[in-house]
Design brief:
By secondary structure, the protein is α+β, with helices and mostly antiparallel strands. The chain contains eight helices and 20 strands. It has two domains: 219 residues, 3-Layer(aba) Sandwich (Rossmann fold), CATH 3.40.50; 119 residues, Nucleic acid-binding proteins (OB fold (Dihydrolipoamide Acetyltransferase, E2P), Beta Barrel), CATH 2.40.50. Strand 9 and strand 10 form a beta hairpin. The protein is elongated, with a radius of gyration of 25 Å.
């Protein structure tokens, strides 16, 4: 008996919401997750991401709206009938059972015949690189191995949707990065849909086909990692995903590819983007898009400031520069030989092109 792969469920949220007394944990949300997609939800604590996961699996009854999985509304259907696998941060393995017994548990609850259970367990153990280790108990396994058992148990009964709630947050950095690759490979093998909740933006951008960024119980923006980083819809998205230097704008002049923004500090910055709708507009410039020099350049945008901090982090040099008026911004470059490396207290010029100047709404 071979492991039956499937193409994964498509999930559609139609006005789904959750209110606790006077507190709206999840505002009416409409969202679609495509079949076979690796879809992540990120956001600060209290943004609603765990609530959305809870109403999806059926642990939390929504106040209103629909959740369509492959076209069928699952609101009101108990969790065990939704064909959803779940991987938790704490693994939630039965300590008195072996790895194989833990993986077999959901199959036994579904009264799958024993020969089929054995074949599926052996197959999925091999897929998570634990072949021959099925007789070990959780206490005899490393953190990464326990996480693999939890992953195998969630997927062994061929769920159309696999939910993962901060599954790697308890692991150290190197093991977490290793498990990211293993989860991605595993998902490609079983071809299921993954809904992944994490607080780690780097993890989400590395693993995901698309990401939803949540804030205050609502989805701020959905897109691929590149779309969200290069074209953030507003100041929150720009600041939450990656690093961003934000300048509040007091006035806008021009149109099309010749827009000039005057900031509240009096800086005049050239941009090449469209002007967002709304009363409040900000300029966003990513730290790595700035060049740091000793003297002024002929770049579209150029600002002078004083280095207040010079730091090294993971192969990059990170500078904090105080501009006129007291605004402090960040510049980041790879640490390579021959590059200008200013010291604390030195006066420098930051420059960048107009097409790296993003206009975002508030």
């Amino acid at each position: 008996m071979s492991f039956e792969a499937n193409k994964g469920a498509d999930v559609k949220y139609q006005g789904i919401e959750k209110t606790y007394s006077a507190m709206q944990a999840l505002r009416p949300t409409t969202l679609e997750i495509r079949s076979g997609e690796f879809f992540s939800i990120i956001g600060p604590s209290g943004s609603g991401k765990s609530t959305l996961l809870g109403v999806t699996v059926g642990f939390i009854p929504p106040t209103g709206g629909k959740i369509l999985i492959d076209g069928s509304d699952v609101v009101g259907i108990p969790p065990y009938r939704r064909n959803i696998g779940m991987v938790f941060q704490s693994y939630s393995l039965f300590p008195h059972m072996t790895a194989a017994e833990n993986i077999a548990f959901p199959l036994r609850m579904r009264r799958v015949p024993k020969p089929e259970i054995q074949a599926k367990v052996e197959r999925v153990l091999s897929m998570v690189r634990l072949a021959g280790m099925g007789d070990r108990q959780p206490a005899q396994l490393s953190g990464g191995q326990r996480q693999r058992v939890a992953l195998a148990r969630a997927a062994v009964y061929d769920p159309g949707l696999l939910l993962m709630d901060e599954p790697l947050s308890a692991l150290d950095k190197n093991l977490r990065e290793e498990m990211q690759n293993e989860i991605m490979q595993f998902q490609q093998q079983i071809e299921t849909t993954v809904l992944y909740v994490t607080h780690d933006q780097n993890e989400a951008t590395y693993m995901s086909d698309r990401i939803a960024i949540m804030n205050n119980g609502m989805v701020e923006q959905v897109g691929t990692p590149v779309e969200l980083y290069e074209n953030p819809r507003n100041k929150f998205v720009a600041s939450f995903l990656g690093e961003a230097n934000i300048f509040a704008v007091s006035s806008i002049e021009g149109s099309g590819s010749a827009v000039t923004a005057r900031t509240e500090q009096g800086f005049v910055l050239r941009t090449a983007g469209s002007v967002p709708k709304g009363e409040s507009i900000s300029v966003c410039v990513r730290p790595e898009h700035m060049t740091i020099e000793r003297t002024k350049t002929s770049a579209d945008n150029s600002l002078e400031g004083q280095v207040v901090d010079a730091m090294f982090s993971s192969g990059h040099l990170i500078y904090r520069i105080q501009l006129q008026g007291g605004l402090t911004i960040t510049q980041k470059v790879p640490n390579v030989d021959g590059r200008f490396k200013p010291e604390k207290g030195e006066t420098v010029t930051l420059s960048w092109s107009a097409d790296r100047t993003l206009l975002v709404g508030d």
